[in-house]
Structures are given as C-alpha cells and as structure tokens.
UniProtKB/TrEMBL annotation:
InterPro entries for the chain: Otopetrin
Membrane-crossing residue ranges in chain numbering: 36-57, 73-97, 117-139, 243-262, 274-294
GO molecular function terms listed in the Swiss-Prot or TrEMBL record: proton channel activity
Lineage: superkingdom: Eukaryota
One Pfam family of this chain: Otopetrin
Protein name: Otopetrin 2
Family: Belongs to the otopetrin family.
Membrane topology, record value: Multi-pass membrane protein
Keywords linked to the UniProt accession: Cell membrane, Hydrogen ion transport, Ion channel, Ion transport, Membrane, Transmembrane, Transmembrane helix, Transport
Keyword presence, GTP-binding: no
Gene giving rise to this polypeptide: OTOP2
Upper taxonomic lineage: Eukaryota, Metazoa, Chordata, Craniata, Vertebrata
C-alpha cells in the first residue's frame, strides 16, 4: 500500500487519461446487459460452493474428530477444480484477443504500469509457496492421495496466476471498443533541409467548389457513428465480459479463504516435515500476504477489464 501511495503522490491525472478508461464510460444499463450470463452464473456457483467448502474445512480442522485429512481432500479438490477452470477461461480469453482487431494502446499510462507491476510482483509470493510445495512433495517419501492433490494444486496455482496475468495485462493494453488498428507513419520521414516558397502560395488559383452528386442520401452523423461503432465481433465482447466476471468471482472466493484463516499449509504435514516448522512458517508468513494482496488487486483489475470490454 505504501508503494502504491508513493507512486501516486504528486501525480496529476487528466480527465482523458484517468485510470484506463480510454474515454469510454459505459452506462449503468449496459454494464449488466451485454453478457451471456454463463460466466456470472458459473462464478456464483463456485463462490457459493467455495463458501461451503471453507466452512466445512474450518469446522473439521478445528474439531477434535480427527477429520483433518478429509477436510484437506475437500479443500484441495475444490481449489483444483476452481484453478483449472480459471486457467482454461483465462487461456480462452487470450485466444479471443488473438482474433480481436481492436487497436493496442501503447500510450504511456502510469496507472496501468503500476497495476501491471503490482500484479507481477504480488504473484511472486504464491509462486514461491507453490515452488516449495512442489519440491517437498516430489522429494518427500509419502506417495498418497493428499500428496497428489497438493502437487496438482501447486502446479495449477502457478499456471492460473500466469495465464490470468497474461489475460489482464493484454486486456488493459487494448483500446476502447470499436477502435481499429491503424498504420502509424513516422513523424519525421525525411531528414534534411526543407525550403518553403512563400511567393508561390499567392499565385495559386482559387480552388473550385467540389462537385456533388444530386439525388444521393448522405449518411447523417448519428447513422455514421452507429455504423462505425457497431462491432462485427459483438460476441467477442460478450465472451470477454463473461470471462472477466467469472474470474472476478473466483478471485473473490480465493481471496476470502486465506484472508479469513484457511491455512492448509500447516494442516498438511508434508511441507512441515520436509522443511521444519520454523522455516516453513517463515516462508508462508512472508509469501502468503502477497498472495492475498494479489487476489484483491486482481479483483480490481478484472472489474476494470469488464468495464472496458
């Protein structure tokens, strides 16, 4: 938070470059209308199931019935399904952008640069936890169901962070809807001396009026704007909005679980036995806050991606 404040102190934002809005402010009606409803529905289902899994995990781990292993199996199974779906959805969003002809926004934007830096930096915490978990599971002696679930969870965690970062960064660098790529010409094509003949300007004859066809019905300004702004690939925008909402809801539930006390890193004894409690506790306590901050910042970025899609 101090880093974000430090990067933004004293910086003035113009109205045209505020955030990543690109001058596009959607209305409240269109905000929830242009979706296929598949992403929000599936995201809400995973959110509700995730809350139930979190409650079951906390009850069984804190109880005295010895159901810790069963709680870990349920917890890891849900996370594997959720992370797998998020990875596939993020990958599909990147594939959709391959066919999107919107212009890329290469203008200097300090806010966007800061968002990308925070996403990449905060993801390193979860990368570190997953890396140490993979080493402990692969090198460790036990080969059981819990170890396999832990290994799959760590691998999918790395893949999900990677593909989601690619999708978010690519989304933030896209222009507004309807913006077409244009060929940029060099500003200074010729290097040399240029002479202007001021006397020749006064000898030029007056330009005759441009002939116009009679009987044609020119397209009015409103019709022209409607024709230009009507995207051919309108289904791509709907898919991207669904993808953004789905990833947003999944990141919310994956943010709630560790933020409210889910610690499978200590309930599962594979890493504790391999590294020792002190070393593993230091790794988790240093890296896990970065993972929680990543989910929080990803929710904000995905909401912005949804608005700009």
């Amino acid at each position: 938070m101090l880093y974000v404040m430090w990067k933004n102190v004293g910086r003035l934002l113009a109205s045209s470059t505020h955030g990543h809005s690109h001058g596009h402010t959607p209305s409240r009606v269109s905000l929830f209308r242009e979706t296929l409803f598949a992403g929000p529905i599936l995201g809400l289902m995973l959110f509700v199931v995730g809350l139930a899994v979190f409650i079951i995990y906390e009850v069984q781990v804190s109880g005295e019935g010895g159901r810790t292993q069963q709680a870990l199996v349920i917890y890891y199974s849900f996370n594997i399904i959720c992370l797998g779906l998020m990875t596939l959805v993020s990958l599909s969003g990147s594939v959709i952008y391959r066919f999107d002809r919107r212009a890329m926004d290469h203008h200097k934007n300090p806010t966007r640069t800061l968002d990308v830096a925070l996403l990449m930096g905060a993801a390193l915490g979860q990368y570190a936890i997953s890396y140490y978990s993979i080493v402990a599971v692969v090198v460790g002696t036990p080969r059981d169901l819990l170890g396999a679930l832990n290994l799959a969870h760590a691998l999918l965690m790395i893949a999900q962070h990677t593909f989601q970062n690619v999708f978010i960064i690519e989304s933030l660098h896209r222009g507004p809807p309807g913006a077409k790529p244009h060929d940029t010409t060099p500003k200074e094509s010729c290097h040399g001396l240029t002479f202007a003949n001021q006397d020749a300007l006064h000898t030029l004859p007056a330009c005759p009026p441009t002939p116009r066809l009679v009987g044609t019905n020119p397209v009015g300004p409103q019709e022209a704007v409607a024709i230009i702004s009507a995207p051919r690939g309108h289904w791509r925008r709907r898919c991207l909005k669904d993808i953004s909402l789905f990833l947003l809801l999944c990141n919310v539930i994956l943010w709630i679980m560790p933020a409210f006390g889910a610690r499978p890193h200590f309930s599962n004894t594979v890493e504790v036995d391999f590294y020792g409690y002190s070393l593993w506790a230091a790794i988790v306590n240093i890296c896990l806050p970065f993972g929680i901050f990543y989910r929080m910042h990803a929710v904000s970025s995905l909401l912005e991606v949804y608005v700009l899609s």
